[in-house]
Amino acid sequence: MKRLIIIGGSDAGISAALRAREIDPSVEPTLVIADEYPNFSICGLPFYLSGEVSDWKHLAHRTRQEIEQAGIRLLMDHHAKAIDAAKNLVLVIDPEGRPSELAYDRLVIGTGAESIKPKIKGIDLPGVFLLRWMDDSFAVNKWLTEHEPKSALIVGGGYIGMEMADALTLRGLSVTVVEFSETVLTTVDKSLGERVAAELNRHGVNTATGVGIESIEADGKHLTVKGTKGFSAGADLVLVAVGCRPSSTLAAGAGIETGIKGAIKVNRRMETNVPHIYAAGDCVETWHNLLKDYTYLPLGTTAHKQGRIAGENAAGGNREFEGSLGTQAVKIFDLVAARTGLRDIEAKEAGFAPFTDQFETWDHKVYYPGAENLIIGITGDRKTKRLLGAQILGHYKSEVSKRIDIFATALFNNMTIEQLSDLDLSYTPPLSSPWDPVQMAAQAWVKNFS
Amino acid sequence: MKRLIIIGGSDAGISAALRAREIDPSVEPTLVIADEYPNFSICGLPFYLSGEVSDWKHLAHRTRQEIEQAGIRLLMDHHAKAIDAAKNLVLVIDPEGRPSELAYDRLVIGTGAESIKPKIKGIDLPGVFLLRWMDDSFAVNKWLTEHEPKSALIVGGGYIGMEMADALTLRGLSVTVVEFSETVLTTVDKSLGERVAAELNRHGVNTATGVGIESIEADGKHLTVKGTKGFSAGADLVLVAVGCRPSSTLAAGAGIETGIKGAIKVNRRMETNVPHIYAAGDCVETWHNLLKDYTYLPLGTTAHKQGRIAGENAAGGNREFEGSLGTQAVKIFDLVAARTGLRDIEAKEAGFAPFTDQFETWDHKVYYPGAENLIIGITGDRKTKRLLGAQILGHYKSEVSKRIDIFATALFNNMTIEQLSDLDLSYTPPLSSPWDPVQMAAQAWVKNFS
Lengths: 450, 450
Prior knowledge:
Two copies of one chain form a homodimer. The first copy, chain A, has eleven helices and 25 strands. In chain A, α1 runs parallel beside α8 (300-314).
C-alpha cells in the first residue's frame, strides 16, 4: 500500500484523496490540515456572512465523518512545517506544538492561496478584515454580531468584493466599494462592469472607482478610509479583498520550483520538479487551454480538477489536466456575470487577432412573462474565425451561467463562431428562443465581423 | 435578380427568406402564406390559451411590417395549389379564389405539418379541437370564452398535451390527460415520465395511461370520451393532440420524392430530387447527427436551421445541414423535462451497445437557499465510451434547458463521457457546484459502468 500524504484539506486536497481511493482502494490518504474545517466551501463564505446560510457547518461539501468513512485520515490543526524530499518526509506540528515526521511514497501539495494584505497604514486595526478561510469569516461574523456595524467599506471590486457588497447589504449594512481600476469586476469588459456598478447602486451600494487606498484610521470603533483623489469615507467595518497569492513557501523550501507570482510549477500530470511530489489548486501555475501556456488563475473548479488528477496519478493512474478556460460566474444582487475563454485584450496579448462583438437580446421569448435582458459578448479570431471567449451579463434566473458553459464546451472543442449556429440547442418559449441567444450572438458576430 | 418563391410563412419559410436576403440582397423573396399569420410562434399557442400571453399578436416573432421592411413580399391567404416543376411555376389561388401563376428560379417548400386526426366517432363534434396553427388556437379560445367550459380532456400526453394540461389548469379548468402509452411524455424515459405525471397530479390534473380513445359522444354541450379498459370521462372541451404528419401533398404532386411518414426527401443542402426546389422544416425528413440517417423529427429549432440553409443555398450559397440531435425541452408546471441525443432504447435500435445511468443531485450548493433536485440520465456507448444522449428533469429555475445544451454541444463534438469532467464549466454556489451536476452525472456513469 502506498503512503499518500496530502497537505491541505480544501478543494484540491480532498479531491486528490477521494480520487486516489477510487483509483486504488488500498491507498489510505492522510490529510494534513491547518485548521479544523476540511472540505469547506470557501466560495460560500459570503452567503454565510449574508445570513443566507443559517449554519456555517452547512458550508462543508462533506462532513468530517463522510470523509473519514471514505477511508481518508484527517490530521486537523496540524501544520506542515517542512518537506524533506530526499528522505520523503513531511515535518508536521500537532495542535499541542509537538513535531513529528510523516513518511510518504507520494505527496500532494494543496496549500491553496492567501489573501493579499496591502501595506497600508491601519491594515491591522480591529474592524479591518481579510476574507479567505473559515477563521476569517468567523472573525467577520463575530464583529458583525458583537459590534452591529451600520456601515461597511469594501476595498476591491472583484468577485469577493462584489459578493460581500451583496451579502452585507442583505445583512442591513450600508456598503461602499472602492476599486483601484476604472470599473468594478475587471474580469469582464468595461461596459459590463459599468452595468454591475449600476446594479450595486440600484441596491444602495456606493462605488468609488479609480481610487487607491492609502490609509485606514480609527476613531474609537469607527474607521476612516482615505485614498487617492481625495477619497475619504467612514465605516464601522472594512473588508480588504484585493486578490490572493499562492501559498508556496513550504514547497519552495523543499526545492520545488515556483514561477508566476510564486506559484508552484507543475506539468499537466500535476507533478512538480521534485520526484513523487504533486501539487494542485490555488498554489500552482495553471495550464490554460487557449493560451497553451501556464498562468496563475486560482478557481475552485480548477482546484477540484487538478486535485482529482494529482490524486489519480499519485495512486498510479496517468491522466493529464486538459487546461483551464477561466470560466467563471458570479451573482451580484439580481445579476449574474459570467465569462469563459479570452477577452479581446487578453486575446491580443496572447498573439491572436481578435474581433469582439456585443449583442443584446431576451433570455426567452418576450411574449412569455418574465423575459429578461441578456448581454452577450463574443470574441473570435479574425483569421480562423474560431471562438476565443465569451461574456454574458443577465438576470440570475436567465440561465446565464449554463449559457456561458455552452460557450465553454464549444471552446474546449475548438469550434468556430459560425459553427455555433449548427448546434442543436433546446428551446421552449419560457426558457429560450428557436435560436438560443448564444446563437443569435454568434450570428451577430459573423454579420458584424469587419 | 433571382426569383425566389417560398411556400409557407412559418419558421422554415421566414428563415429561408431572411437568410436569402442576407446572402444576396438583390433577391426579393415572395412568400405564399395560407393564412394571415406569417412568422408566428406556434410553440407559443399554449401560453396564449393559458392567458399568459395577453394578446395573440405578441406571438409573432416579427410583425408583418418588419418582415416587409426586410425586403420580403408576403402573399397572405394565398394557397399554393400546384407546382409545375417543368415550367418553374407555382399555381396560386388568391383570397378571392382567383388563380395565378408565379414563376420561380428557386423554390423553397416550407409547408410544415398537420395535426393527426384520429378516425374515431365524434372527432368532428363541436367542442373537440386539434391544435397546430393560429386558427386552431382562435377556435379553442372562442370556445373557452363563449362556453366557459369547466373541464377539459386532452387526448395525448406529448409536448402539446403536457403544455395544454398546464395551460388549461391555469385557465381554471379541471383537466384530464389520456395517453395511449404506459406513461405520459414518452420522449423521455419511463421513470421521468412518471415524475411528470406526478407533477400533473400535484396540480390537480388527472392522468389515464395505457388507454386508447374509442369515441366521443355529445349530450348537449357536454362531451363524453370513451376508451379502452372501460375508460369513460366527461368534459366540456376535448383537445386531441396525438402528433403530426408532414404536409407534403403539394410537393408529392409535383414529382418530389417523399419518404418516412410521407415527409419530403432532401439532401443536407435541403435540395429535393427536383432541380431548383428546396424544402425545409416540419414537411421534410431530417438528417440525424447521431443516427447518420434520415428520420422524421419535426421541431421549431430544426425548422429554423433548415430554412436558413435552404435560403442560403437558394441564394447561391453552399451550406449543409449538420443534423439534428433531437434536443428538446418542455416546461410542465414547475418542472422542465429536456433531452438530447439518443435514449437507451433508441441507441440499441441504431446499432449501438448503450449503457445508461441515472443520477440525482442538487442544481446548486444545497447550503444556498432554493436548491432543487435534478435527475440526469446519461446514455453512452459501451465500446467507445462516447456520449450518446442525456435527459434531465428538474425545476424550471434549475437551468435544466441550458444544462441539456452542454450535453448537446458535447454530442455535436463527439465527446466521450469521461471528457465531460475535463470541461471548464462555471460555478458559483447559488447556481452550481464545483463539479457541475452534468459532470457529477458523467462521473457516476463512469463509476457505475458495467
